[in-house]
Amino acid sequence: MGKTTLAKLVYNDDRIKHHFQLRMWVYISEKFYLKQILQKILVPAAQENVTLAQSTAIQSIHLMGVEQLQANLQQIIKDKKFVLVLDYVWNENRLRWNELRDLLIGGAKGSSIIVTSRSSKAASTGGTCYEHKLRGLSPSNCMSLFKKSFEDGPISVTNAELQIIACQIVSNAAVCHSWLKLWEDCSLILSGSNNPLAHVPPFLNQQTSLETLLSHSSVLWISGEVLEACISNCKYLRQLDLRKSIFEVLPSSINTLKHLRYLDISDNLKIKTLPQSVCNLQSLEVLGPHGCRSLEELPRDMWKLISLRMLSITTKQKSLKNTGLDRLRLRRLEIVECHNLESLFEGMNMEGLTALEYLNIRNCTNLSSIPTDSLKFQTSLEVLQLFSCKKLDLYMAEEEIFPSCLQATDIDHFWVAENANLTGMVPRSC
């Protein structure tokens, strides 16, 4: 049970309704603006004091100034015993708290304010009399609840191997109720049989001609066994979207997906390597391991991806010269958060990348240079974007109005932003 759920149970309890003359619930969020909070308090407060004049006031609350809002609030709570719930509070500024508290003093003795917050400091700053800290379920209770969620269904969490997987899921769960929602939404459900996909919905289990598989936004964890089973069962996949997953290993059997054209594993913070077998996907057109901040290096045989047209990467490598990128027929290349990368395209034969139309380089904090000769072969380049590369310096001669390394291109759009050496792009005579 979460903080807001517990507060709602208290707020809606019949004893609370009879004990307090006035009940108000306000969702605060991260922005603690006094005027907005007063407006949010006044609406439920005025609704419980219905007269024709007050009904008109409700409609005009958003037009009132702070002083008028304060006066109306004081009038409504005067001599009334009220309960006010401030939900999801982040403010830790005592002065702002005091401003709001002073406006709520006019109520009758016994009035109460309930605050829900993830921050103990926010609660103590607000002058909390009693702090109730919610704790998660114990691992054993969490496992019991997890098993109970399958009692009325066709799946039984009794198989020894399944028990291990269930323990992994429970250990990754911050709170169990989130995982109940996960298992309601998840399209991949483990069974107790030898076939990992025996109880997967028919569209996965029966139709082996499935062409697209997307991971749901609520699926925070997926086992290697399930991923392996998907790959082995869905030979005709053309799109595989696993963004924001947290699996550590992409199965080497990925190379059996001969028809795969789109593979997105972006924003996976766990994966450290890509299997060499991924380079055998000769139909692959789009590959996106960007945002994979733990990825040590790209496979050496990238040049085998003969159909690849779009590539977006994050890697810890200092150089890309042994990746085979210069032998690809890429049209779009994004190099993102490669913080160890020092020189772009150095030691690479850029004559192979003549089809490149779009080049985006961003958040490469140690990138200091782009060799002059590396871009002169990019005659098809139309868009070049350089963002947050603090050390990058493109030298221009005094007589140049545009970098010489770009003059041979058909570039139409050239964006440079948040680069510390931006002055290096400006002719000295300016």
TrEMBL record:
GO terms for biological process: defense response. It holds the Pfam family LRR_14. Transmembrane segments: none annotated. Residues 1-149 form the NB-ARC domain. InterPro entries: LRR_dom_sf (IPR032675), LRR_R13L4/SHOC2-like (IPR055414), NB-ARC (IPR002182), P-loop_NTPase (IPR027417). The keyword Repeat applies. Residues 231-386 form the Disease resistance R13L4/SHOC-2-like LRR domain. The keyword Repeat applies. GO terms for molecular function: ADP binding. Keywords: Plant defense, Repeat. PANTHER family: DISEASE RESISTANCE PROTEIN RGA3, PLANT BROAD-SPECTRUM MILDEW RESISTANCE PROTEIN RPW8. This is Disease resistance protein RGA4.
